[in-house]
Design a protein that fits this description.
- The complex is a heteropentamer of chains A (about 250), B (about 220), C (about 300), D (about 400) and E (about 300).
- Chain C has 12 helices and 2 strands; from the N terminus they run αααααββααααααα.
- By secondary structure, chain C is mainly alpha-helical.
- A two-stranded antiparallel ribbon of chain C has the order 1-2.
- In chain C, strand 1 and strand 2 form a beta hairpin.
- Helices cover about 40% and strands about 20% of the residues of chain D.
- Chain D contains 14 helices and 15 strands.
- In chain D, helix 4 links the parallel strand 4 and strand 5.
- The model of chain D has no long low-confidence stretch (mean pLDDT about 90).
- Chain E has one domain.
- Chain E contains 13 helices and 2 strands; from the N terminus they run H-H-H-H-H-E-H-H-H-H-E-H-H-H-H.
- Chain E has a two-stranded antiparallel ribbon.
- In chain E, helix 3 packs across helix 9, helix 6 runs antiparallel to helix 9 and helix 10 crosses helix 11.
- Chain E is globular, with a radius of gyration of 19 Å.
- Classes of the chains: A alpha/beta (about 250), B alpha/beta (about 220), C mainly alpha (about 300), D alpha/beta (about 400), E mainly alpha (about 300).
- Chains in contact: A-B, A-C, A-E, B-C, C-D, C-E, D-E.
- The structure holds adenosine-5'-triphosphate (2 copies) and magnesium ion (2 copies).
């Protein structure tokens, strides 16, 4: 690729006691691209995202975002600098309504700690929040308490919150797990379309190869903490090792 | 093995299941298919006694357990794998798997444990690690193992393949299919039967809390 | 030198007492996530029951040596009855509610029990000093020490080890740990959660009652003895790490020796020594010394 | 004619309920009933107060003092308030009594600050019992007079105002008496601590010749139960200012020879007269136990109020009675009470000390020495602390 | 919506009207209300922290600091001007709150409760040792002047009540403003999911610290008001039982409005007073039974009655 990478990891390594969750992970992400990450269970996919977003500190290696070294930065700082994520188990505010969830995301993005006396619930903000809900097809649930919603909706909300404030990079950890099969594609479309409007760089972890094929031009395959393959999706999915360890023979 | 008659369940005043009926004869594998929010999890939880039904009956092996507390089911040979894994974080993987065995006071069936480890060699590898450290998919496997260890008669598996890498999912399907031969009944829920099409003898579709039966072929 | 041995003995003695009154609290919190303020009332009731039981016992002219058996029986019976009554009668309707709310529920129980005690036993003191005097004293390094107090240390060690063994080494104990982590899934896996809760609460209550029973012969059994105890027990349990039995032991030793040191070397700081220790421990280890690791979240 | 309503705040719950609240309440009930029936010996053999029957309103002192006082006065419309044991509550209530202009008698509360600092120009407020100053001063004098070895003195007092004040006054008194004592240990366990193992060890290891103790209630009893078997009383002379309260409770376990007082001319230290004989007999008969000093103090507060209202005459208001009460002398089971200090609002009384003894299984005191009020209380124009500091200036002792 | 406090001005106006009407209550009842207003502000401080998922079992600390600041300035330094005393009480509490927030903002759940309890009990221990402050007996606070005017004994209670009522309403207004602000709205998010909040770029610690400081200021004001109302302060203000009472009121009242804890505290005091009147020997039992009944029957606090009405 000709353009400069927006996010680069070099030789990332993470150990938990005796377990090596990541070893020599070097990946470059380019502005505007959509990248899929696949891999066996426990291959280190979530660990990778956790390191990039500052939840885990790598045992070795560096992470560069827009040329700046962000290794070891806190999740808050990575978020503020423009890297957002969604979670394998959706991370939401369960007792609040969908609308409130998004409003909170907006306040947090806008003012970090929140201003002390200016009213936060402005008409403008309400409109913006409703617009986000509409963009992610969540408007039907605006006033429902989030904890009572089906998994899929929670996942979608999780992504919507990550998208607030138009970050430069979004990392989605299994966005479609828990979403019913006939809704997966629709959901990816509703989730990704608004993000793709801008120049957002997107990485998603996925176990469903149909989704991977459909939405990602490039795929990285993980196995046992290392990168098994990295390249155009079609090639990676044909890779023998990937077929053996990740996809399995029959299903591909 | 499992017979559910016109089950009504409401959560916080909202009816979720309406007259849901379903039966799984011994030795069959039934699929409960439905979109998000259709009520699959609610159904499973009600069968397990984790939710109080407002009406209807649940029979296990012809015994009416509708009003019985949750814990009587495991000793009857019912294994349950919840959708959200729910391992005991400070227990090791093996302790988690053996939990129902210890709970019911039955002796540890080594052969069955070995069978589970053979089925999923990856969990054998981390058998002595604490459950809290595992990745999402790994936890899912452990939860499946935990259901298998007591589920001599009936397995209730709530979206067992969700978040499991395809290669492994295929292997699991084969093994669950093999259980039929042992006379076990299985009820597994999925949002679609792509994974389990070959596995399922009976297909039930749940929609807005109502269950309709389809034949596997027709679906 | 005399002072040193006095500090060692006093610290140990006070720690033993603190452990006895605190361990039930940590057990109940550990299993049920209920920070039980009524624990103080249980302790007080234990003391009153001991006073009454021994009153009847001595009144009947029974042999003095067996009075200790009577104390044990009284503690067991009173603890089980009281624990089951409170758990079955009130708490079980509130399971799953907020932790703080449960604190207040038990606070309400505490207030009710305090007045109930007053109604049953009146406000005047009760005395049953015979067991305390029974064993006499020994001189340790020139310092006379009541044998009863030394036996209390033995009792604390035995009961503590017993409880720890029960929790760590028995099937029941493992089940209890599972229930702590996830009540619902434990039930689904075949654990009789109701029984575990009732048992745990009863055992915790028995410990509180035992604390009161063994203390009764040393003190005037009067209204209000429960209030002082509960806050001390809280401090001990928090220092050690809520819900941990070894933690309660360590917390009791910390607090016991802090007090002994203060009494002998700087008596003016006695009152807040224990809180200072608690604040200091929490400042360094926010979840107490023996805190459990929490699970991976994302 | 309507009844005479008296609000009686005493401890009905908490640790002070047994040792203070109960005897005070019982004494009040006894006196109200006897007064209403006209059965109290002279000069109180008239019915009620000014012929009006007395109606009591007991409230729990262990609640918000300011709120409850207002409730008594403004909601319940009592004619007088007689009660209060805790110094903290007395401090709260003192200015209120003046503000609400209600005839109020404090029964106990030892702190001398009430009239020294809190209400320096009292109109409606009285205290019919002596302050705690006389306990400490009397204790020091008794120790000196009885020839105790005062070379090494230790103290164990509850860690709150009462205990601290007592210890401060006692050590200051020793200094004033020039005993040359060395203070070898000062213990301040928490109020209601109950466990004194460490404190007792500390006392034992510091080998004091004299131990001063101002505990009350369960703490006092627990202290004796835990220290006597370990030989503290055998090794040192132990003085307990509230020791008389132990007589009906742990009779057999108080070591003989321990020095005790009843914080004034009460109970075993009371003079023999018609009122005292009647009171102790009537109390014991009705309640089956001896009247400890709080009961005596309550009795004398009530009788003082009656005397004041009756001196002011029929139809007297609280203000009239207060005016009459100031500087008055009245008879009580404890003898003649002089409202001598604080413009005649604070009583002064003597105090007796003696050693505990069991005679035929009955608790009693021996080696009694009684100090007159003028010997153990500051003169009207001096604060307690200044008076002790000045070496008991103007004290009249025989 | 849990985070929506836009109706708050209406409730506060209702409170203001109630307080004006209450001026004509009998003296004892109005006094009860007046002290309850002071305590209610502290309970409100507890409620604010509860919104962030934190239960302060040592809120009495700030109450005590407020009370002692007023008391010490008035009784020991001779400054008896309310316009100096009350701001001083608030500032003292704010400063201590800010210092403690550095430590406490790291703690959550029961550990926050226990550590705050420990800190308040350390102050208790110190005050008990301070003989010059009257130890456990505390000390009395002389009558105060208002902008130089020292009211006569006759009208003093009226003025004190008026000032208390005005300050309470004002405090509620300021708190309502804060609740509607960004920092106020994010509290609920701290309670529910800090990880999510961090990943949205906000700092839970900062939000918690702000809450702690605001709650401290409110409680300082409450303590100052109490010192002036009852004319007496003592260390029991920072004892855990006092703090426990605030927590109880906070839960009883619910967190739906700033005025809920204020009214809740008054209700509790009424129950206590009548229980004492009705059964001086068993008032604690009545209080306990009422607590249990409320917890069992009104899981979301008394304010849920108001909210339920609004919804239907
Ligand atoms: N606590 C609750 N309060 C109210 N409604 C609830 C609650 N929990 C679940 N529901 C509702 O019950 C319905 C059924 O939920 P359930 O989890 O059983 O669906 P599901 O078929 O398992 O969906 P999924 O594929 O997302 O797992 C959903 O519409 C959900 O919103
Ligand atoms: N906090 C931790 N402590 C110890 N081991 C951990 C921890 N987090 C992850 N691991 C281990 O690191 C490895 C990688 O885990 P990770 O969560 O990254 O897997 P994953 O690729 O996301 O898997 P899945 O598809 O199941 O979500 C696993 O073996 C896991 O057990
Ligand atoms: Mg993962
Ligand atoms: Mg489901």
């Amino acid at each position: 690729m000709s353009r400069d990478a927006i996010l680069i990891t070099e030789g990332l390594e993470k150990q938990f006691g005796g377990v090596v969750a990541a070893r020599d992970i070097s990946v470059a992400m380019y502005p505007g691209e959509t990248l899929a990450v696949i891999g066996a269970n426990g291959a280190g996919k979530t660990t990778f995202v956790n390191m990039v977003t500052g939840y885990l500190k790598p045992s070795a290696g560096t992470i560069r975002f827009r040329g700046r070294d962000i290794t070891g930065m806190s999740p808050r700082d990575t978020a503020r600098s423009g890297i957002r994520r969604s979670f394998q188990i959706s991370q939401i505010f369960p007792q609040l309504t969908t609308l409130e969830n998004v409003i909170i995301a907006d306040i947090a993005a806008a003012e970090s700690g929140g201003a002390l006396s200016a009213p936060a619930l402005t008409g403008e903000r309400m409109d913006a929040a409703r617009a986000i809900l509409a963009r992610f097809a969540l408007d039907g649930f605006a006033d429902s308490i989030v904890g009572t919603l089906p998994q899929g909706v929670k996942k979608q909300l999780d992504i919507a919150m990550a998208a607030v404030g138009d970050p430069a990079v979004i990392l989605l950890d299994e966005p479609t797990s828990g979403v019913s099969v006939d809704e997966k594609i629709g959901m990816m479309e509703t989730a990704l379309a608004p993000l793709k409007d801008g120049e957002t760089t997107l990485l998603f972890i996925e176990h469903d190869m149909d989704i991977v094929r459909r939405f990602a031009a490039r795929t990285v395959a993980f196995y046992e903490g290392t990168i098994l393959a990295d390249g155009p999706t079609g090639e990676v999915l044909q890779n023998d090792k990937v077929r053996q360890y990740v996809i399995g023979g029959a299903h591909a | 093995m499992l017979e559910v008659r016109t089950l009504d369940v409401a959560i916080a005043g909202t009816p979720i299941l309406r007259g849901a009926s379903l039966d799984v004869p011994p030795g069959t594998t039934a699929g409960l298919i439905g979109r998000n929010g259709a009520g699959k999890t609610t159904f499973m939880r009600a069968v397990m006694g984790l939710l109080r039904p407002e009406g209807g009956a649940i029979l296990l092996d012809e015994r009416d357990v509708t009003a019985e507390p949750a814990h009587v089911r495991a000793p009857m040979g019912v294994g349950y794998m919840p959708e959200d894994r729910r391992l005991i974080p400070e227990f090791s993987v093996e302790e988690n798997i053996l939990l129902p065995v210890h709970a019911t006071g039955a002796g540890v069936d080594r052969a069955r444990l070995t069978m589970i480890y053979d089925l999923m060699p990856e969990i054998a590898r981390f058998a002595d690690r604490k459950a809290l450290a595992l990745s999402g998919g790994q936890q899912k496997l452990v939860a499946l193992g935990r259901a298998l260890i007591v589920g001599h008669r009936l397995l209730l598996l709530d979206e067992p393949f969700e978040g499991v890498a395809p290669a492994l999912a295929q292997r699991l399907i084969e093994v669950i299919g093999g259980l039929r031969g042992e006379g076990m009944s299985v009820l597994l829920s999925e949002s679609d039967h792509v994974h389990s099409a070959d596995l399922i003898d009976e297909l039930f579709v749940i929609e807005r809390g109502e269950i309709t039966r389809r034949t596997a072929q027709a679906a | 030198m005399l002072k040193f041995s006095a500090i060692m003995l006093d610290g140990m003695n006070y720690a033993a007492w603190l452990f006895l009154v605190a361990v039930g609290l940590t057990l109940i919190y550990g299993v049920m996530r209920i920070l039980n303020i009524a624990h103080g009332a249980f302790y007080a009731i234990g003391a009153y029951v001991c006073a009454s039981a021994l009153g009847v016992y001595y009144g009947a002219g029974l042999p003095e040596a067996l009075a200790f058996l009577a104390m044990g029986v009284a503690a067991l019976v009173a603890g089980v009855v009281l624990g089951l009554a409170v758990e079955r009668g009130v708490l079980r309707f509130l399971y799953g509610r907020d932790e703080v709310l449960m604190v207040l529920v038990t606070y309400a129980m505490f207030l009710i029990l305090e007045d109930a005690v007053k109604m049953i036993w009146g406000v005047n003191s009760y005395f049953v000093y015979q067991p305390y005097a029974y064993f006499g004293f020994v001189e340790i390094g020139g310092l006379p020490y009541q044998v009863y107090d030394l036996l209390m240390v033995v009792l604390a060690v035995v009961l503590g080890l017993g409880l720890w063994f029960w929790l760590e080494r028995t099937r029941m104990g493992r089940m209890t740990t599972a229930v702590v982590a996830d009540r619902e899934i434990s039930a689904a896996m075949g654990i009789n959660v109701t029984r575990i809760f009732a048992t745990t609460f009863a055992i915790g209550t028995v410990f509180a009652v035992v604390g009161g029973v063994v203390t009764a012969p040393k003190i005037a059994v009067t209204p209000g003895i429960g209030v002082e105890v509960i806050i001390l027990a809280f401090a001990v349990v928090v220092i050690g790490g809520l819900g941990s039995i070894p933690g309660a032991a360590i917390g009791a030793i910390f607090a016991g020796y802090a007090r002994a040191l203060c009494v002998h070397l700087a008596p003016q700081f006695d009152l807040f020594a224990i809180y200072a220790v608690m604040a200091a421990v929490l400042a360094v280890r926010p979840h107490g010394l023996f805190a459990k690791t929490s699970g991976r979240k994302i | 004619q309507d009844s005479f309503k008296i609000g009686v705040p005493v401890f009905l719950s908490g640790a002070a309920a047994g040792p203070f609240g109960e005897p005070e309440k019982q004494a009040a009930e006894l006196l109200f009933d006897a007064l209403n029936a006209g059965e109290v010996p002279g000069p109180y053999n008239t019915v009620g107060i000014n012929g009006r029957t007395i109606e009591a309103r007991f409230t729990d002192e262990a609640s918000d003092a300011a709120v409850e006082y207002r409730n008594l006065v403004e909601r319940d419309g009592v004619d007088a308030v007689i009660g209060y044991t805790s110094s903290g509550n007395c401090k709260t209530v003192a200015p209120l009594a003046e503000e609400l202009e209600t005839f109020t008698v404090f029964v106990d509360c030892g702190t001398p600050q009430i009239f020294e600092e809190v209400v320096t120009d009292p109109k409606f407020l009285f205290r019919t019992g002596p302050t705690a100053t006389s306990d400490a001063v009397g204790a020091a004098r008794y120790l000196v007079d009885s020839g105790a070895d005062l070379s090494r003195v230790a103290g164990i007092n509850q860690n709150y105002a009462w205990g601290q004040d007592n210890w401060r006054d006692f050590t200051a008194s020793l200094k004033a008496l020039d005993t040359g004592s060395e203070i070898v240990s000062e213990q301040f366990p928490q109020l209601g601590a109950g466990q004194y193992g460490a404190e007792v060890s500390a006392l034992l290891t510091s080998s004091p010749t004299v131990v001063f103790n101002s505990f009350w209630g369960g703490d006092l009893e627990a202290f004796v139960l835990q220290s006597a078997p370990r030989g503290l009383f055998a090794r040192s002379t132990v003085l307990m200012t509230c020791g008389e309260a132990l007589f009906p409770t742990i009779t057999k376990d108080v070591p003989e020879g321990a020095i005790v007082s009843a914080r004034g001319p009460f109970s075993v230290f009371a003079p023999e007269n018609e009122l005292s004989t009647w009171f102790s007999a009537a109390y014991e008969e009705r309640f089956g136990t001896m009247a400890t000093y709080p009961a005596w103090k309550m009795a004398q507060a009530i009788l003082g109020a009656k005397a004041a209202f009756e001196k002011a005459g029929e139809g007297a208001t609280g203000a009239d009675a207060a005016a009459a009460f100031a500087g008055m002398e009245f008879e009580a089971p404890s003898g003649t009470v002089k409202m001598a200090n604080a413009n005649g609002h604070q009583a002064i009384q003597g105090i007796g000390f003696g050693t505990y003894a069991l005679v035929d299984g009955e608790p009693t005191v021996e080696n009694v020495k009684f100090y007159e009020a003028e010997c153990t209380s500051p003169p009207a124009d001096m604060t307690a602390a200044a008076w002790i500091e000045a070496g008991f200036e103007g004290a009249i002792c025989d | 919506m849990k985070t929506d406090f836009r109706r708050e001005p209406v409730y506060i106006a209702v409170l203001a009207v109630l307080l004006v009407l209450a001026f004509f209550l009998p003296g004892w009842l109005r006094f009860l209300l007046q002290t309850a207003l002071g305590g209610g502000l502290v309970a409100l401080g507890v409620v604010l922290q509860m919104r962030a998922g934190l239960v302060n079992f040592g809120q009495g600390l700030y109450y005590c600091i407020g009370g002692y600041t007023v008391g010490m300035l008035a009784a020991k330094a001779g400054i008896t001007e309310a316009a100096i005393l009350l701001p001083a009480a608030v500032i003292a509490a704010l400063v201590i709150g800010a210092v403690l927030a550095l430590l406490l903002s790291r703690y959550r759940e029961i550990f926050y409760a226990m550590l705050s309890l420990a800190v308040s009990m350390i102050l208790y221990g110190l005050l008990v040792k301070a003989a010059w402050l009257g130890s456990t007996d505390g000390f009395n606070v002389p009558p105060v002047s208002y902008f130089g005017w020292l009211p006569d004994r006759g009208v003093r209670p009226d003025i004190a009540y008026g000032v208390t009522a005005v300050l309470t309403v004002l405090a509620c207004f300021l708190v309502a403003r804060y609740l509607r602000s960004g920092a106020g709205m994010l509290c609920e998010a701290v309670a529910e999911n800090e990880i999510r909040l961090e990943y949205l770029g906000a700092s839970p610690r900062r939000i918690v610290s702000i809450t702690i400081v605001i709650a401290a200021g409110l409680s300082g004001l409450g303590g100052g008001i109490l010192a002036i109302s009852t004319g007496h302060v003592d260390p029991s203000m920072t004892n855990w039982t006092t703090s426990g009472g605030f927590v109880f009121v906070a839960l009883l009242a619910g967190r739906g409005s700033t005025i809920a804890p204020i009214l809740g505290f008054f209700l509790l005091e009424l129950v206590r007073t009548y229980a004492l009147d009705f059964a001086p020997n068993a008032w604690q039992m009545i209080l306990g039974a009422v607590m249990l009944a409320v917890i069992l029957l009104l899981p979301d606090g008394l304010w849920s009655l108001v909210q339920r009405r609004r919804k239907t």
